[in-house]
Design a protein that fits this description.
With 63 residues, this protein is an alpha+beta fold. Helices cover 24% and strands 19% of the residues. Bound molecules: iron/sulfur cluster (SF4).
């Protein structure tokens, strides 16, 4: 699984970091960053949940 955040869409709401803090971080960046790749299998459901709940549809998941 590959995940990416669209910097132009992210509004820094923090939902993704709350849902999957091992994968998403807002520390020191103007938008959410993916800090763990590839995504381990045990976190993939949470990443999908974060993508679904992102209010700006800024998280793209492939694979
Ligand atoms: S949930 Fe979406 S808009 Fe909110 S911080 Fe994460 S990527 Fe950005």
């Amino acid at each position: 699984m590959i995940v990416a955040v669209d910097a132009n869409r992210c509004i820094r709401c923090g939902f993704c970091e709350t849902i999957a803090p091992e994968v998403f971080s807002l520390d020191g960046a103007p938008h959410a960053q993916v800090v763990l790749e590839p995504i381990p299998w045990h976190l993939q459901d949470l990443v999908c949940q974060a993508a679904e709940e992102c209010p700006e549809h800024a998280i793209r998941v492939e694979g």
